[in-house]
Amino acid sequence: MAKTRAKVAELDPVWARIMREAEEAVVEEPLLGGLVHYSVLHHPTIEGALAYRISLKLASGEMSEQILREICDEAYAADPELAMAARADIVAVYERDPACHRFLQPLMFFKGFQAVQCYRIANWLWREGRRDLAYLFQMRCSEVFGVDIHPAARIGRGIMIDHAHSIVIGETAVVGDNVSMLHSVTLGGTGKEEEDRHPKIGDGVLIGAGAKVLGNIRVGNCSRVAAGSVVLEEVPPCKTVAGVPARIVGEAGCAQPSISMDHLIRGGT
């Protein structure tokens, strides 16, 4: 057993750490033993655990957990990038959220992480041409988590959505790598046009709570959008914007705002 775990740790350090933390959690809180075993320790891979967790959350009278599990298993087998992105998301949440103390927590308890993984399956279905199933995943994700991400949106790795209540990301939106956002963020359109109509968020961007970014505009790499802002115009890289409508109020203040998670606006920075 020790050799097997050492091999897992070598090949998949994120999953090895989750399993170790799961065993610790069972010792610390035996009442969670069944849940943790079914969700984590019962599965040989992170793909299996993700498929189980997503299907359990999204199951309803309209579609059973078993069918949803088969869909998720198929997606993870067909596209290894899905689970690689999930690993990056787990690390991102752990590094950026001060309330996260274990890799285990996003997988088990954080709806922002879980909602993003549901979107990733929906996006795979969309790219496979299975649009109605993709819409079903979107609908259930919105109903269960309060996170409404169109399956055609393109979202990178290392995403952290903190609290994740009332998140809306539209069909033609693009979100880069290592982006952080808080609750009530909208990446929306400005009318009924059917072409490319949603924002393009660069790498390393931090979007504060309640911010709305509207229209086919770009928010440059490593910029900050202050809480409550309404962004209607392009944002250059490495800037901070704030207000309604949002205006540039200074520099981003650091090289990676999405990682530092510093939302304060200081004079001249």
TrEMBL record:
This is Serine acetyltransferase. PANTHER family: SERINE ACETYLTRANSFERASE. Residues 14-118 form the Serine acetyltransferase N-terminal domain. Belongs to the transferase hexapeptide repeat family. It comes from Thalassococcus profundi. Keywords: Acyltransferase, Amino-acid biosynthesis, Repeat, Transferase. The keyword Membrane does not apply. SUPFAM superfamilies: Trimeric LpxA-like enzymes (SSF51161). Signal peptide: none annotated. GO terms for cellular component: cytoplasm. The keyword Acyltransferase applies. GO terms for biological process: cysteine biosynthetic process from serine. It catalyses: L-serine + acetyl-CoA = O-acetyl-L-serine + CoA. PROSITE patterns: HEXAPEP_TRANSFERASES. InterPro entries: Hexapep, Hexapep_transf_CS, LbH_SAT, Ser_AcTrfase_N, Ser_AcTrfase_N_sf, Ser_O-AcTrfase, Serine_acetyltransferase, Trimer_LpxA-like_sf. Coiled coil: none annotated. Its EC number is 2.3.1.30. Pathway: Amino-acid biosynthesis; L-cysteine biosynthesis; L-cysteine from L-serine: step 1/2. It is an enzyme of class 2 (transferase). GO terms for molecular function: serine O-acetyltransferase activity.
